[in-house]
Design a protein that fits this description.
heterodimer, A: alpha+beta, 4-stranded mixed sheet, B: 6-stranded mixed sheet, 5-stranded mixed sheet
């Protein structure tokens, strides 16, 4: 059985509002597309143009049968996969594996529900002081600041329940 | 010109140093009396062993809570209380409050709360833990998170001096407990994930001036390594050993931080400690052995000069920091009496070395799941790395699966104990494996410089033995390199152990239990659930003729993250692998000291 989950989000974004790169892609859940690969590649180079008012598939998750190790078997689109990887390179040190939270940083599955993309970028870029911990500003770390969109897609996929815990795979 | 002046001052201090040793003499007297717990390890050797035996294997089951004390701080409480005479000294995680408590009536004699920049918090990699204080010369030495090292009047709590040991804006912080030896106070630095270059620094206890500073990596003048006199497994290390196994000037952000514990042998006048991971967790971009990260150092206390070195994990590919404690003991190895150093490394090997010469005597796995290397070559000292677990060989952007141990290590900073009575080492361990994928990252000063993704899970998933425990508490024979007994624990055992002449061993669990077990058999004799998960060290002392056991509870630290590892489905905690429930189901935050004693 293959479950497919996608989410569409409307980005209405002033061209200079954030540092993140928004790729001008329109994806509706169908397997895509060179356009997307190209956009992501351009994002890597930091050269793509920012879109205004474009609809974008936030993430695409395809989960298959449970494998031998008892893990669900999920494929992510490239951007969301990069979000997963960035999260587990930088954010998991506080927010824990799979974003479930630790003793000193909140569970982001709950927390992200109250955030639209702009608010997410603001918090992530500038940091803030929470009830227990302090979120550092990430705007000066290119490894993270180039990946706001991907991170947001990953966290939404987790938060929406589309992506279960564990290590996903990149869609071939 | 300036340079020359600095050098001259350095020489002057080195000349004065050996003569004045008030801190040493006084502290050694205090440590000799088991009524005190005057240093993190109970003694300079870091044995965490007490000669007290009023509480013993026969009566420990009757133990009761004598009194408790809330620190008022929520974050992870590592380290443990010091007891000097009638006074107990406690340090909390950030903001690093210090309390002096009168043991006669448990009132607070004085408290000290430093003003620290909250911007320090986010550059601390894994919670804002602190591992405790040092006492000597009528002073309490406080190593703050923001790198300030402070000397306080032990009677009044008034600040005597304060110096800065690093720059948090560049990612330097401190979590370690300082140690006082002779007239110097020793401290290290944290920040390996931020490209910080590690060092051990010795400051004069009278005024905080720098006596010496030995970097882990860099040119010989920085590392205080002598190309001829400093040895690695008996051979001179040669020129520029701290730079010539690095690509270009990568050593400048080379890591090798020093956030663990420091021990000392007064007869040899040597200080022992280990260095952490080379910066960036992506091994592909930093070819070479990356010396002297992941290394055991033996330095002369007076000059800081390195006597011998041993690199355990050349060219780290898994974040196996080598900072865990070096326990000094005199034991028989292969029928011969030896002065040894015993070290349980993150990489899963238990090492026994001759601490005089640095000769490698034993290197065996102290967790059966360890798979990244088959063994250590006893001639070269190099681990035989298994190709499929080499994250470098597998390469960038590729997932290396089922590596044991996980980055947390088979053991992290939680210090082990040694009982000269049983001759055994008692070791709190982790039992986790991981998937690890290196990827390219850009370095920016003051920003985390990691470059790998991690997923951790119970070791049983790799060994296939059906076990689900995330930790063990083991007894280890350091002569044979063998586990004598092993107690599975649901979660990592992240608390420092205590062994006593009462033939018992104490440790804490992440659920919050203080446990006492028989030193010979491991049989559980007592347990009590403290207010929060325990990542602190169990200490003991005597006051007014009565023996007490004390431990800080207060869940947090990296342990608090490892906790959630192993759940693959959001509902797993309730399902087939019900052994794992989120830590939330067992315990909540909050720092409390719990003190135990036998009933009157």
């Amino acid at each position: 059985m293959i479950l497919v989950a996608t989410a569409i989000l409307l980005f209405a974004c002033a061209a200079d509002s954030t540092e993140e790169k928004l790729s001008a892609q329109v994806v509706d859940g169908a397997p895509e597309s060179t356009a997307k690969e190209k956009a992501a590649g351009m994002a890597d180079a930091g050269q793509d143009e920012k879109s205004t008012d474009s609809a974008s598939a936030l993430y695409s998750v395809e989960c298959g049968q449970v494998n031998d190790a008892g893990e669900p078997f999920c494929y992510l689109d490239r951007d969301t996969y990069i979000g997963w990887r960035t999260f587990h390179g930088f954010c998991h040190r506080c927010h824990a594996q799979d974003a479930v939270g630790s003793t000193f940083a909140p569970n982001l599955l709950d927390r992200i529900q109250g955030f639209d993309f702009d608010a997410f970028v603001d918090r992530t870029a500038n940091g803030f002081t929470g009830q227990v911990g302090v979120m550092p500003p990430w705007k000066d770390n290119p490894n993270v600041s180039k990946r706001y969109k991907e991170l947001f897609a990953y966290l939404k996929a987790r938060s929406d329940g589309a992506l279960p815990r564990g290590r996903p795979k990149k869609k071939p | 010109m300036t340079k020359r002046i600095i050098v001259m001052i350095g020489v002057a201090l080195a000349v004065i140093a050996p003569g004045t040793s008030s801190g040493n003499t006084e502290l050694m007297k205090l440590m000799d009396n088991p009524d005190n717990w005057a240093i993190w390890g109970g003694d300079y050797a870091g044995t965490r062993y007490s000669k007290l035996n009023e509480i013993n294997s026969k009566n420990v089951g009757d133990l009761q809570v004598a009194w408790t004390f809330s620190t008022g701080v929520l974050r992870g409480h590592e380290g443990g209380p010091l007891v000097v005479g009638d006074t107990m000294y406690i340090m909390t995680p950030f903001p690093n409050k210090v309390f002096a408590i009168d043991l006669n009536d448990q009132t607070i004699i004085w408290r000290y709360e430093p003003k620290q920049d909250p911007d320090t918090i986010p550059v601390m990699c894994c919670d804002t833990v602190a591992r405790g204080l040092a006492y000597a010369d009528g002073k309490i030495f406080l190593q703050q998170a923001d790198t300030h090292l402070v000397a306080l009047n032990a009677k009044t709590g008034k600040m005597i001096w304060r110096i800065k040991n690093g720059d948090p804006k560049k990612g330097s912080t401190n979590t370690n407990a300082p140690v006082v030896i002779k007239d110097k106070v020793l401290t290290g630095i944290s920040g390996g994930e931020f490209g910080v270059r590690g060092f051990l620094a010795a400051y004069n206890i009278s005024d905080g001036s720098l006596a010496w500073k030995g970097f882990s990596v860099g040119p010989d003048k920085d590392t205080l390594i002598d190309p001829i006199k400093t040895t690695h497994l008996g051979k001179p290390v040669g020129k520029s050993s701290g730079t010539n196994t690095w690509k270009g000037d990568q050593w400048k952000i080379g890591g090798g931080t020093t956030w663990g514990w420091y021990t000392y042998d007064p007869d040899l006048n040597l200080v022992y400690y280990g260095t952490g991971n080379p910066s960036t967790w992506n091994p592909v971009v930093r070819p070479g052995d990356n010396r002297w990260s992941m290394t055991i150092f033996a330095r002369d206390l007076d000059t800081g000069k390195a006597k011998w070195l041993y690199q355990m994990t050349p060219h780290d590919e898994w974040d196996y920091d080598g900072i865990n404690e070096m326990i000094l003991a005199d034991i028989k190895v292969k029928g011969k009496n030896r002065k040894v150093l015993v070290h349980f490394d993150r990489n899963g090997f238990g090492y026994t070395l001759d601490r005089v010469t640095g000769e490698l005597l034993v290197a065996e796995k102290f967790d059966p799941s360890v798979n990244w290397a088959t063994h250590v070559n006893m001639k070269t000292g190099r681990p035989a790395v298994v190709a499929k677990y080499s994250t470098h060989a597998t390469g960038q952007d590729t997932n290396t699966k089922n590596v044991c141990p996980a980055a947390l290590g088979s053991k992290d900073q939680q210090p082990a104990a040694f009982s000269p009575k049983t001759g055994l080492f008692y070791v709190p361990t982790n039992h986790l494996c991981m998937d690890y994928e290196p990827f390219e990252v850009e370095y920016v000063a003051g920003q985390p410089y990691v470059g790998a993704t991690l997923s951790m899970f119970p070791a049983g998933r790799v060994t296939g033995d059906g076990t689900t425990n995330l930790g063990n508490f083991i007894a280890w024979d350091a002569s044979a390199g063998k586990i004598v007994w092993s107690l599975p624990e649901r979660f990592s055992v992240w608390s420092g152990a205590l062994a006593t002449a009462g033939d018992i061993v104490f440790y804490g669990t992440l659920e919050g239990y203080l446990k006492a077990v028989d030193a010979k058999t491991g049989k559980e004799l007592y347990k009590f659930k403290t207010p929060s998960g325990i990542i602190g060290n169990v200490n003991t002392w005597k006051h007014d003729g009565k023996q007490y056991i004390g431990v800080l509870s207060g869940i947090g630290g990296w342990a608090g993250i490892g906790m959630a590892a192993g759940l693959t489905g959001d509902t797993d905690g309730l399902g087939a692998v019900g052994a794992y429930k989120a830590l939330d189901n067992y315990t909540q935050l909050g720092g409390v000291l719990t003190v135990f004693a036998l009933p009157d």
